[in-house]
């Protein structure tokens, strides 16, 4: 799946690609099939690794958004009730 390729591309200068991949994954978890949720859970190791993502442009921490988004996705995946709530919100 292309999403996983973008997330596994942990080349720091590609932080935008990784962040957009996480945003897409979050959307798929909320709006996609149950298979998207299962697939995301199976790739938990990749998501956890992104919690250590670092990239600085000068003094600006560009990796912070990636770390925060990966944390949000991991927290959502660990709570079935939250996924259910997010899916209901997305349907409205």
Automatic annotation (TrEMBL):
One of its GO terms (molecular function) is clathrin binding. Residues 1-87 form the ENTH domain. One of its GO terms (biological process) is endocytosis. It comes from the Eukaryota. GO terms for cellular component: clathrin vesicle coat; endosome; plasma membrane. This is ENTH domain-containing protein.
């Amino acid at each position: 799946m292309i999403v996983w390729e973008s997330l596994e591309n942990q080349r720091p200068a590609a932080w935008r690609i990784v962040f957009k991949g996480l945003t897409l994954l979050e959307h798929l978890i909320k709006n996609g099939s149950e298979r998207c949720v299962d697939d995301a859970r199976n790739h938990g190791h990749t998501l956890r690794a992104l919690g250590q993502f670092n990239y600085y442009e000068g003094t600006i921490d560009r990796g912070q958004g990636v770390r925060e988004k990966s944390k949000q996705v991991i927290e959502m995946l660990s709570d079935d009730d939250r996924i259910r709530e997010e899916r209901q919100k997305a349907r409205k």
